[in-house]
Write a structure and sequence with these properties.
Strand order of the largest sheet: 3-2-1-4-5-7-12
Number of helices: 12
Distance between the termini: 37 Å
Strand content: 5-15%
Largest sheet: 7 strands, parallel
Bound molecules: NADP nicotinamide-adenine-dinucleotide phosphate
CATH topology: Rossmann fold
Mean pLDDT: 97
């Protein structure tokens, strides 16, 4: 796809986010079985569903995409159905309900809970570890790509280039600990039943309606100071992240294969803010001191297997700055990427 200079409305945004790569289209020709996306109701679900459907169409094969969530927001379900995604409403904490789900060959697991953990830690542990237990016991004969997070790594020096998949995990705070719990539970059942698994450790997807660039850009646009305590971050265009999630299906192994999914840069907050401020014609102000530790992952392994992301950092900065200038809709879901005490 030739990328547009600017993105001016949500229809265009969803089209760009839902574009499959030639590599994914090729994979769909080889992949056996249908695809089920568990936890499709969130910020990334519709993009992932659209990429899957469009890759299947482009490949000229016949394959169902089924999305499962509670559908707390009924509009999401309507939108998914319009795309051609079948939907099943299910609370994945409910063992009986999960037992009735069809056993589909390819599972993308996106369920998670982050915000609101501080003060309600029990629910976060239940969603992030009990749901994996129930799901892993039901889909023993499937291949499963499990969405995880770079938060399972410790904070590292901003000059380090980020943690690699072979580095030790050391999660900070209960949210991150429960995410490692999710990985361990799936990993246990993968070893027990031989279920092929990929652990997909994502660091910050970029949509124009939410994401780290949206959070920084919005501060600049509203002339509020940009905090520097977490001075570097990783980011990847959500469309690229979704393509890579589906490509992971062919890399599932037992024991699990692990991938860091993000862009190639450790991005300085100052750099991102200065570029967006320039585009917006605003003067950026900063608060706090440049932190020397941050949550950073190294994406060399995913780049080797899936190629570099198709949308560059420069392009994401330009699109985000213009989106904010146009008054584009936001989801009102801040990433809290500037949290450095592990409490969400
Ligand atoms: N977006 C990012 O930049 C990012 C970065 C790192 C990691 N991740 C991880 O990647 C995954 C997908 O990201 P996301 O941003 O789309 O997450 P999200 O917005 O939190 O969406 C997850 C969805 O899972 C569904 N869900 C939660 N509990 C459920 C239950 N008991 N039964 C059925 N469905 C349930 C919810 O939809 P309903 O309310 O409709 O059920 C929820 O919207 C998450 O696990 C997230 O932690 C995302």
């Amino acid at each position: 796809m030739i990328l547009p200079e600017l993105i001016s409305n949500e229809e265009q945004l969803d089209e760009v986010l839902g574009t499959p790569s030639p590599q994914l289209t090729e994979m769909m020709r080889r992949l056996d079985g249908d695809i089920m996306i568990l936890g499709i109701g969130g910020k990334m679900g519709a993009s992932l569903g659209a990429v899957a459907i469009n890759a299947i169409k482009a490949a000229g094969v016949s394959k169902k995409v089924i999305g499962v969530a509670r559908f707390s927001d009924p509009d999401t379900r309507k939108k998914l159905n319009q795309l051609g995604i079948e939907t099943i409403s299910c609370d994945l904490l409910d063992r009986q309900a999960v037992a009735e789900l069809p056993r589909i060959k390819n599972i993308i697991f996106m369920v998670g809970r982050k915000f609101g953990t501080d003060g309600n830690e029990e629910l976060t542990w239940a969603i992030n570890t009990l749901v994996p237990h129930i799901v892993a016991e039901h889909f023993t004969a499937s291949r499963i790509v499990v969405f995880s997070t770079g938060n399972v790594y410790p904070l590292v020096p901003v000059t380090s280039g980020g943690c690699s998949e072979t580095d030790s995990t050391n999660p900070l705070g209960e949210y991150a600990q429960s995410c490692l719990g999710r990985e361990r539970i799936f990993g246990h059942f993968s070893k027990l039943y031989g279920t092929p698994l990929c652990l997909y450790r994502l660091n910050y997807a970029i949509d124009l309606r939410y994401g780290v660039l949206y959070d920084i850009g919005r501060k600049i646009w509203e002339e509020k100071p940009v905090d520097l305590s977490v001075s570097h971050f990783n980011a990847i265009w959500q469309g690229d992240a979704c393509n890579q999630a589906l490509l992971c299906l062919e890399y599932c192994t037992s024991p699990a294969n692990v991938f860091n999914i993000t862009g190639p840069e450790s991005i300085p907050v100052r750099y991102a803010a200065d570029i967006m401020a320039q585009i917006m014609g605003k003067k950026v102000t900063y608060s706090g001191n440049d932190g020397s530790y941050a949550l950073l992952a190294n994406s060399a392994k995913s780049a080797k297997h899936f190629g570099y992301p198709t949308v560059s950092l420069q392009q994401m900065l330009t699109w985000t700055a213009h989106w904010l200038m146009l008054g584009g809709r936001g989801l009102n879901k801040p990433t809290h990427f500037d949290t450095n005490n592990g409490r969400f």
